[in-house]
Amino acid sequence: MTQIVPLSAETRDRAGKGTARQTRRDGRIPAVIYGDKQAPVMISLEKFTFTRVLHQPGFFTHLFDITVDGATHRVLPRDVQFHPVTDVPLHVDFLRVSADTRTHVQVPIEFVDQDKSPGLKRGGVLNVVRHELDVTVAAGNIPEHITISCEGFDVGDSIHISAVKLPEGVASTITDRDFTIATIVAPSGLKSEGAEGEAAAS
Predict the structure, then answer these.
(1) What confidence tens digit (pLDDT) does each residue in 79-104 have?
(2) pTM of the model
(3) Closest C-alpha to 34, from 91, 90, 89
(4) Do 128 and 108 touch, CB atoms closer than 8 A?
């Protein structure tokens, strides 16, 4: 079950660049809540509170209960625009969801059982190709992470999506190929030993 984070907000009277600039001068971040066949709600968030939440792990996979004018909207963050120089958040988009709303998210990957990988025990290196998986899942069941076991993988092996047991109700958005998530590669020492062995054999 995904984490639900409470946030308070204030309404904004108007959209537009001028209003957004004034909102930011007031120490707040303009945002919008949209979706679920309802009218968009223009809001603003307290800058420091939101920035602290933004930098917590899993921001885009957590649900938020945003309270504005006495009403609470359950939402999922969809986009954050940043200043190109200062990296300060400039605007946030939130999508209204219910517990059953199926949505597309990127979920972080956690690799476990590295001590049970023959390749890693021999000094091999886990070369991560994808740090996140693109999945579709009900909003109320977004996992904090996808766990992938390294057990049994040796140097030269690849971990493909077909080897991953996804949580119930979670499906990969890529279905047309058995893509690679990580590989076990030989460290430079093992590579040089292999090259010397080949040279000696020839």
Answers:
(1) 999 999 999 999 999 999 987 889 99
(2) 0.79
(3) 91
(4) no
